[in-house]
């Protein structure tokens, strides 16, 4: 029903098409980023029986940030104790 209303508005006012595309791509991008955070962030624990503290199993060369400027994670060495 909502999609049909958007299509009828877009047919009547073609200048709304870029607005619908930008808002739609923003919503899809936000949903994908939240899904990436839920699946690959070390702070999120889905399996508490097998891996209760996933943040302790990270190696120093694991990149878990979305984007890092001028940091080469492959050159980092371990400087902390094992738990």
From TrEMBL:
Topology relative to the membrane: Single-pass membrane protein
Pfam families in the record: B12D
GO terms for cellular component: mitochondrial inner membrane; respiratory chain complex IV
Cellular compartments annotated: Mitochondrion inner membrane
Keywords: Electron transport, Membrane, Mitochondrion, Mitochondrion inner membrane, Respiratory chain, Transmembrane, Transmembrane helix, Transport
Family of the protein in this entry: Belongs to the complex IV NDUFA4 subunit family.
Protein name, UniProt field: Cytochrome c oxidase subunit NDUFA4
Organism: Anser brachyrhynchus
